[in-house]
Amino acid sequence: MEGMVAKWYATNTGRMLDEFTKLARRISNQLPPGSAVLEVAPGPSYFCIELAKLSPYSITGLDISKTFVEIARKNAAAAGVRVDFQQGNASNMPFPNDTFDFLLCGAAFKNFGQPVRALQEMCRVLKPGGRSLIIDLRHDAPPELINQYVDTMGLSAVNKILTKLAFRTMLLKNAYTREQFELMLAQAAFRSFDIQEVDIGFEISMTK
Ligand SMILES: C[S@@+](CC[C@H](N)C(=O)[O-])C[C@H]1O[C@@H](n2cnc3c(N)ncnc32)[C@H](O)[C@@H]1O
After folding, report:
1. CA distance linking residue 93 with residue 63, whole number of Å
2. pLDDT value for 61
3. How far is the CA of 193 from the centre of ligand 1 (A)?
4. What backbone torsions phi and psi does residue 6 show, to the nearest 5 degrees?
């Protein structure tokens, strides 16, 4: 089951490559070559791969799913870039303290079983002064905005219906509000954080 969902997700988000390319450019503009970057829960890893094409970063991807780690490795090899993909849990990361300059976690935080632990781990593995960006759906995203967003994903008619249904049934239910994020972030040791509403989600920037 996990493998089937992973493969479905990899195929469907592949069409949104443009978004990942734009995000990678945006991040790369603020990140010196040689920086150590971690993507938490990269799934098929489109972001890491686009980032790796832009500059000689040292990039690591950590995902709990064996299938996604395999898909990500294949995708990176096909793109001719080097990313170190490891299987592991966001709430118990296999990395020493103070390792990364930048960390991204996109469309995954709401799935974590121990979200506060995951935030504490993100803080622990960042270098002092390191930055972290979480991008995820917000619980109060209006249905019209979600429908518009799904319409831009380039999905087939059937997949559009299934994706809208997934948003309404599972995804929104798991997503957090701003207040919930603030309470969770207060339990990690970041020096500062900022929560911005962007489209159907939040962009949460944290600095250690
Ligand atoms: C919806 S996908 C998002 C993938 C990618 N970040 C993107 O934007 O396309 C969610 C990912 O979170 C991973 N995941 C869920 N729980 C996790 C955990 N506790 N630790 C690490 N990865 C996790 C899943 O295996 C999956 O790859």
Report:
1. 10
2. 98
3. 22
4. -60, -45
pTM: 0.94
Pull the structure tokens for residue 26.
């945006």
**What whole-number distance in Å separates Cα of residue 163 and Cα of residue 67?**
21
* DSSP designation for 61: E
Cα 183 to Cα 185: distance, rounded to the nearest angstrom: 6
Give the pLDDT of residue 5.
73
Which protein residue's CA is at the shortest distance from atom 27 of ligand 1? Answer: 43
Our mutation pick for probing the ligand 1 site, out of 18, 64, 92, 171, counting the most ligand atoms within 8 A of Cβ, is 64
Query: Whole-angstrom Cα distance, residue 83 to residue 200?
Result: 29
Tokens in use for 125? Answer: 């593995």
Q: For residues 193 and 185, is the Cβ–Cβ distance under 8 A?
A: yes
Ligand 1 centre and the CA of 202: distance in Å?
A: 17
Residue 57: how many other CB atoms lie within 10 Å: 23
CA pair distance 100, 36, nearest whole angstrom: 5
End-to-end CA distance of the chain: 37
Nearest 5 degrees, angle CA 83-CA 86-CA 92? 130
Residue that the structure tokens 């972030």 belong to: 185
Q: Does the pLDDT of residue 89 top 60, yes or no? A: yes
Q: Phi/psi at 193 (nearest 5 deg)? A: -150, 160
